[in-house]
Amino acid sequence: MRNSIKRAVVLLSGGLDSATVLAMAKADGYECYALSFDYGQRHRSELQASNRVADALGAKEHRLFDLNLRQFGGSALTDDGIDVPDAVTDGSGEDIPVTYVPARNTVFLSLALAWAEVLGARDIFIGVNAVDYSGYPDCRPEFIESYQAMANLATKEGVEGDGFKINTPLISLTKAEIIRKGSELGVDYGLTVSCYNPDDDGRACGQCDSCSLRREGFKAADVIDPTRYS
């Protein structure tokens, strides 16, 4: 007999978007199991942020999964030979940027799927966004729809049970709308880290694409930006 508790696995990076998603899932009545990854990223400040956010927003459990994608490299976030670029401001940023980590969301969702099946959770939440984003192919609605179809073909729960739903509550929101929503739900964005290249103290560089999107989002939302910049 299925557990009557409504459970969800929430992918939690420690950034602005994933913190908002966790707050939204909690507000919708889910018992939230937060999952973060130490995947060999340049800095540990976002992992420390994920701990702060999980505690502040009352996750039922928070697990940090060790997954060293630095063994492959291929991204400015996992390869010391590739520099994190400054934000593109001249309209030329049409190509997939070097901060894209090959297959990251596919891998993350697969591990979230495994944990969800063990927990008896039908729902997985991920903070992908197709409006104010950096051009990553694994943040598009087409990817999420295809992944959900695959998940329900590849799992026992998908074959014998009710199947899984990949929830993307931010998919069509602007960064300003995300910030307003999170603020309504009491998210303390001062706990989060979005920067691709923060310093050793966790202060944001203020120059990368993620910093630019975050700063402009707070400005457009007319919400005070609590980010600590170097």
Give an overview of the whole structure.
The protein has 230 residues and is α/β, with parallel strands linked by helices. It has one domain (7-221): Rossmann fold. The protein is 36% helix and 11% strand. It has seven helices and five strands, in the order E-H-E-H-E-H-E-H-H-E-H-H. A five-stranded parallel beta sheet has the order 3-2-1-4-5, sandwiched between helices. Helix 2 (45-56) links the parallel strand 2 and strand 3. The longest helix has 16 residues, at 104-119. The chain is globular. Mean pLDDT is 92; it is low at 89-93.
Question: Which key terms come to mind for this protein?
Answer:
Rossmann fold; single chain; alpha/beta; globular
Brief synopsis:
The protein has helices at 16-27, 45-56, 104-119, 141-154, 156-160, 175-184, 209-221; strands at residues 7-11, 31-38, 61-66, 123-125, 165-167. With 230 residues, it is α/β, with parallel strands linked by helices.
State the helicity in percent bands.
25-40%
Query: From the 3D coordinates, which CATH architecture would you assign?
Result: 3-Layer(aba) Sandwich
The number of distinct structural domains comes to 1
* Biggest beta-sheet profile: 5 strands, parallel
Q: What's the CATH topology label?
A: Rossmann fold
Helical stretch count?
Answer: 7
The radius of gyration computed from the alpha-carbon positions, rounded to a whole number of angstroms, is 17 Å
The 3D shape can be described as globular
Poorly predicted sequence stretches spanning 5 or more consecutive residues: 89-93
N-to-C CA distance: 53 Å
The total strand number stands at: 5
Looking at this structure, what is the CATH superfamily? HUPs
Mean pLDDT: 92
At the first level of CATH, the class is Alpha Beta
Give the SSE order as H and E letters: EHEHEHEHHEHH
Write out the strand line-up for the largest beta sheet, numbering strands in chain order.
3-2-1-4-5
